[in-house]
Design brief:
Order of helices and strands: HHHHEEHHH
Number of strands: 2
Strand content: 5-15%
Structural class: mainly alpha
Distance between the termini: 30 Å
Radius of gyration: 18 Å
Shape: globular
Strand order of the largest sheet: 1-2
Length: 149
């Protein structure tokens, strides 16, 4: 007999908790979080969409993600400042910019990718139990392997 599964509500709430842990694990941007408008979550959503759709526009990202265009514009500005994306005029409409991932990962991207979740996960678990931390980290690695787009 299998243990009781997770229902849709529990999965949704777990997803929100995991997003919060991920946000807490992110290193501060250069100049601190106060210097940059917009949340880490919005920047990550925009960056993921740009990676999946190179040569896109702010309006297209907003349409695909369902986020307001103003929030996408702010996220794109942060990504551009960090060197994570490039922009070029749209030959079909020079008022728009085409947005693509940078050819090489920026220092900020390398920093974010190199940061572990250990401290944020330990805080979320409310305990400094290395075995429990390892168990949850291993479970997250399995989920990431099977569920990452």
């Amino acid at each position: 007999m299998y243990p009781r599964g997770v229902n849709g509500v529990e999965l949704f709430l777990l997803g929100r908790t995991l997003m919060k842990i991920g946000e807490d694990a992110m290193p501060e941007p250069p100049g601190g979080a106060e210097r940059h408008a917009g949340s880490t979550r919005l920047v990550l959503i925009a960056a993921s969409d740009i990676a999946a759709h190179p040569g896109t526009t702010v309006g297209d990202i907003a349409a695909r993600t369902g986020l307001p265009q103003s929030q996408i514009s702010t996220a794109v500005a942060r990504l551009k400042e960090a060197g994570s994306i490039t922009t070029a005029p749209d030959p079909a409409d020079r008022r728009r910019a085409l947005i693509s991932p940078a050819a090489e990962p920026s220092a900020r991207v390398a920093q974010v990718r190199a940061t572990t979740i250990d401290a944020a996960l330990a805080t979320a678990l409310g305990a400094d139990d290395p075995q429990r931390l390892r168990e949850v980290t291993d479970a997250l690695a399995v989920l990431a392997r099977h569920l990452t787009p």
